[in-house]
Amino acid sequence: PEEQAETRTKKIVDLYTAFPATRQMAEFARTIYNNVHNISDVDICNAPDGQLLKWIDTEYSLFRSFEEKVYAPIYNAPFRNCQELITFSNIILNRRKSRAGKSLEHHLATIFTAAKLEYEEQVVTEDKKKVDFLFPNGTAYHNLLFPADKLVFLGAKTTCKDRWRQVLNEADRIETKYLFTLQQGISKNQLREMKHENLKLVVPAPYRASFDKEYQPEIETLTSFIEMVKLKQC
User: Fold this and answer.
1) Per-residue pLDDT at 76 exceeds 90
2) Which of 64, 176, 196, 204 could form a disulfide with 49 if both were Cys (CB 3.0 to 4.6 A apart)?
Protein backbone atom coordinates (compact mmCIF):
# COMPACT_ATOMS: atom_id res chain seq x y z
CA PRO A 1 0.00 0.00 0.00
CA GLU A 2 2.82 2.45 0.79
CA GLU A 3 4.39 1.92 -2.64
CA GLN A 4 1.01 2.34 -4.32
CA ALA A 5 0.47 5.59 -2.41
CA GLU A 6 3.88 6.88 -3.47
CA THR A 7 3.16 6.02 -7.11
CA ARG A 8 -0.23 7.78 -7.03
CA THR A 9 1.32 10.79 -5.29
CA LYS A 10 4.01 11.10 -7.94
CA LYS A 11 1.44 10.91 -10.76
CA ILE A 12 -0.56 13.77 -9.24
CA VAL A 13 2.49 15.96 -8.57
CA ASP A 14 3.76 15.43 -12.12
CA LEU A 15 0.56 16.98 -13.48
CA TYR A 16 1.13 20.35 -11.77
CA THR A 17 3.66 23.15 -11.91
CA ALA A 18 2.18 24.97 -8.89
CA PHE A 19 0.27 24.09 -5.72
CA PRO A 20 -3.34 23.02 -6.34
CA ALA A 21 -6.10 24.65 -4.31
CA THR A 22 -6.32 23.50 -0.69
CA ARG A 23 -9.69 21.81 -1.20
CA GLN A 24 -8.30 19.91 -4.17
CA MET A 25 -5.16 18.93 -2.25
CA ALA A 26 -7.29 17.50 0.56
CA GLU A 27 -9.42 15.62 -1.96
CA PHE A 28 -6.34 14.17 -3.65
CA ALA A 29 -5.09 12.90 -0.27
CA ARG A 30 -8.40 11.23 0.56
CA THR A 31 -8.60 9.66 -2.88
CA ILE A 32 -5.06 8.28 -2.61
CA TYR A 33 -5.61 6.76 0.81
CA ASN A 34 -9.15 5.52 0.19
CA ASN A 35 -8.29 3.86 -3.12
CA VAL A 36 -5.14 2.20 -1.84
CA HIS A 37 -6.86 0.85 1.29
CA ASN A 38 -10.35 0.32 -0.23
CA ILE A 39 -12.02 2.70 2.22
CA SER A 40 -15.78 3.17 1.89
CA ASP A 41 -18.20 5.56 3.58
CA VAL A 42 -19.06 2.73 5.97
CA ASP A 43 -15.41 2.44 6.98
CA ILE A 44 -15.23 6.20 7.50
CA CYS A 45 -18.30 6.16 9.74
CA ASN A 46 -17.04 3.17 11.73
CA ALA A 47 -13.70 4.81 12.57
CA PRO A 48 -13.81 8.57 11.82
CA ASP A 49 -10.99 9.44 14.24
CA GLY A 50 -8.53 7.09 12.62
CA GLN A 51 -9.57 7.96 9.08
CA LEU A 52 -9.08 11.65 9.72
CA LEU A 53 -5.52 11.13 10.97
CA LYS A 54 -4.67 8.88 8.03
CA TRP A 55 -5.94 11.49 5.57
CA ILE A 56 -3.92 14.20 7.32
CA ASP A 57 -0.75 12.07 7.16
CA THR A 58 -1.34 11.28 3.49
CA GLU A 59 -1.94 14.92 2.66
CA TYR A 60 1.21 15.99 4.49
CA SER A 61 3.26 13.58 2.37
CA LEU A 62 1.55 14.86 -0.77
CA PHE A 63 2.13 18.47 0.23
CA ARG A 64 5.81 17.82 0.93
CA SER A 65 6.17 16.36 -2.57
CA PHE A 66 4.63 19.52 -4.03
CA GLU A 67 6.97 21.65 -1.92
CA GLU A 68 10.01 19.84 -3.26
CA LYS A 69 8.87 20.33 -6.85
CA VAL A 70 7.72 23.95 -6.60
CA TYR A 71 10.43 25.30 -4.31
CA ALA A 72 13.46 23.33 -5.55
CA PRO A 73 14.39 25.89 -8.26
CA ILE A 74 14.40 28.59 -5.57
CA TYR A 75 16.35 26.93 -2.77
CA ASN A 76 18.86 25.35 -5.17
CA ALA A 77 20.05 28.83 -6.10
CA PRO A 78 22.08 30.86 -3.57
CA PHE A 79 20.27 33.58 -1.63
CA ARG A 80 21.80 37.02 -1.99
CA ASN A 81 21.37 37.89 1.67
CA CYS A 82 19.86 36.75 4.95
CA GLN A 83 16.64 38.70 4.46
CA GLU A 84 15.90 36.86 1.21
CA LEU A 85 16.30 33.56 3.04
CA ILE A 86 13.99 34.69 5.88
CA THR A 87 11.36 35.92 3.44
CA PHE A 88 11.44 32.63 1.56
CA SER A 89 11.20 30.64 4.81
CA ASN A 90 8.19 32.66 5.94
CA ILE A 91 6.42 32.01 2.63
CA ILE A 92 6.87 28.26 3.17
CA LEU A 93 5.75 28.31 6.80
CA ASN A 94 2.71 30.51 6.16
CA ARG A 95 1.57 28.28 3.32
CA ARG A 96 1.91 25.22 5.55
CA LYS A 97 -0.13 26.79 8.37
CA SER A 98 -2.85 28.09 6.06
CA ARG A 99 -3.18 24.79 4.21
CA ALA A 100 -3.30 22.72 7.40
CA GLY A 101 -6.18 24.76 8.85
CA LYS A 102 -8.35 24.72 5.75
CA SER A 103 -7.67 21.09 4.88
CA LEU A 104 -8.74 20.06 8.39
CA GLU A 105 -12.13 21.67 7.70
CA HIS A 106 -12.40 19.88 4.35
CA HIS A 107 -11.65 16.49 5.90
CA LEU A 108 -14.13 17.04 8.73
CA ALA A 109 -16.82 18.05 6.23
CA THR A 110 -16.23 14.82 4.29
CA ILE A 111 -16.69 12.79 7.48
CA PHE A 112 -19.86 14.66 8.47
CA THR A 113 -21.28 14.06 4.99
CA ALA A 114 -20.44 10.34 5.17
CA ALA A 115 -22.17 10.20 8.57
CA LYS A 116 -25.24 11.81 6.97
CA LEU A 117 -25.27 14.74 9.38
CA GLU A 118 -27.11 17.89 8.42
CA TYR A 119 -24.68 20.80 8.62
CA GLU A 120 -23.57 24.02 6.99
CA GLU A 121 -20.11 25.57 6.78
CA GLN A 122 -19.08 29.19 7.28
CA VAL A 123 -22.48 30.36 8.50
CA VAL A 124 -22.73 34.08 9.26
CA THR A 125 -24.08 34.72 12.75
CA GLU A 126 -24.11 37.87 14.91
CA ASP A 127 -21.93 40.83 13.93
CA LYS A 128 -21.05 39.16 10.61
CA LYS A 129 -19.01 36.47 12.36
CA LYS A 130 -18.58 33.14 10.62
CA VAL A 131 -18.67 29.75 12.27
CA ASP A 132 -16.79 26.79 10.81
CA PHE A 133 -19.62 24.26 11.22
CA LEU A 134 -23.21 24.75 12.30
CA PHE A 135 -25.61 21.86 12.80
CA PRO A 136 -28.17 21.67 11.24
CA ASN A 137 -27.78 24.95 9.28
CA GLY A 138 -27.88 28.73 9.29
CA THR A 139 -31.59 28.89 8.55
CA ALA A 140 -32.38 26.99 11.74
CA TYR A 141 -29.97 29.17 13.72
CA HIS A 142 -31.60 32.42 12.60
CA ASN A 143 -35.11 31.03 13.17
CA LEU A 144 -35.79 31.96 16.80
CA LEU A 145 -38.58 29.37 16.91
CA PHE A 146 -36.05 26.60 16.31
CA PRO A 147 -35.01 25.11 19.71
CA ALA A 148 -31.58 26.36 20.74
CA ASP A 149 -30.77 23.05 22.39
CA LYS A 150 -30.97 21.38 18.96
CA LEU A 151 -28.26 23.65 17.55
CA VAL A 152 -24.60 22.60 17.64
CA PHE A 153 -21.59 24.76 16.92
CA LEU A 154 -18.15 23.36 16.05
CA GLY A 155 -15.02 25.40 15.47
CA ALA A 156 -11.95 23.77 13.90
CA LYS A 157 -8.38 24.81 14.66
CA THR A 158 -5.24 22.75 14.21
CA THR A 159 -3.81 24.39 17.35
CA CYS A 160 -5.57 26.21 20.17
CA LYS A 161 -3.09 28.26 22.22
CA ASP A 162 -5.06 31.45 22.98
CA ARG A 163 -7.02 31.30 19.71
CA TRP A 164 -9.72 29.15 21.30
CA ARG A 165 -11.27 32.30 22.77
CA GLN A 166 -12.21 33.43 19.26
CA VAL A 167 -15.05 30.91 19.08
CA LEU A 168 -16.72 31.95 22.33
CA ASN A 169 -18.85 34.72 20.81
CA GLU A 170 -19.35 33.34 17.30
CA ALA A 171 -22.84 31.94 17.95
CA ASP A 172 -24.71 33.69 20.77
CA ARG A 173 -27.74 31.34 20.69
CA ILE A 174 -25.60 28.32 21.52
CA GLU A 175 -24.42 28.11 25.11
CA THR A 176 -21.94 25.22 24.83
CA LYS A 177 -19.36 25.62 22.09
CA TYR A 178 -17.36 22.71 20.64
CA LEU A 179 -13.85 23.10 19.27
CA PHE A 180 -12.05 20.42 17.26
CA THR A 181 -8.27 20.60 17.52
CA LEU A 182 -5.21 18.51 16.72
CA GLN A 183 -3.22 20.06 19.55
CA GLN A 184 -2.26 17.59 22.24
CA GLY A 185 -1.59 18.03 25.95
CA ILE A 186 -3.22 21.39 26.55
CA SER A 187 -2.40 22.63 30.07
CA LYS A 188 -4.74 22.15 33.03
CA ASN A 189 -5.06 25.92 33.42
CA GLN A 190 -6.34 26.32 29.87
CA LEU A 191 -8.66 23.33 30.21
CA ARG A 192 -10.05 24.87 33.39
CA GLU A 193 -10.65 28.17 31.57
CA MET A 194 -12.34 26.38 28.69
CA LYS A 195 -14.67 24.57 31.05
CA HIS A 196 -15.53 27.83 32.79
CA GLU A 197 -16.41 29.35 29.39
CA ASN A 198 -18.60 26.37 28.39
CA LEU A 199 -16.18 25.28 25.69
CA LYS A 200 -15.78 21.54 25.05
CA LEU A 201 -12.83 20.13 23.16
CA VAL A 202 -13.14 17.52 20.42
CA VAL A 203 -9.95 15.65 19.53
CA PRO A 204 -9.01 12.48 17.61
CA ALA A 205 -9.48 9.50 19.94
CA PRO A 206 -5.75 8.59 20.14
CA TYR A 207 -4.96 12.15 21.31
CA ARG A 208 -7.24 12.12 24.34
CA ALA A 209 -4.66 10.26 26.43
CA SER A 210 -2.28 13.23 26.11
CA PHE A 211 -4.56 15.37 28.30
CA ASP A 212 -4.67 15.50 32.08
CA LYS A 213 -6.63 12.52 33.42
CA GLU A 214 -8.93 14.81 35.37
CA TYR A 215 -10.26 16.32 32.13
CA GLN A 216 -10.14 13.34 29.79
CA PRO A 217 -13.76 12.26 30.48
CA GLU A 218 -14.99 15.71 29.45
CA ILE A 219 -13.15 15.72 26.13
CA GLU A 220 -15.10 14.42 23.14
CA THR A 221 -13.67 12.28 20.36
CA LEU A 222 -14.81 12.78 16.80
CA THR A 223 -16.84 9.60 17.12
CA SER A 224 -18.66 10.69 20.28
CA PHE A 225 -19.25 14.17 18.85
CA ILE A 226 -20.91 12.71 15.75
CA GLU A 227 -23.12 10.49 17.90
CA MET A 228 -24.17 13.49 19.99
CA VAL A 229 -25.16 15.46 16.89
CA LYS A 230 -27.05 12.46 15.50
CA LEU A 231 -29.13 12.24 18.66
CA LYS A 232 -30.06 15.91 18.37
CA GLN A 233 -31.01 15.50 14.71
CA CYS A 234 -33.14 12.36 15.17
Assistant:
1) no
2) 204
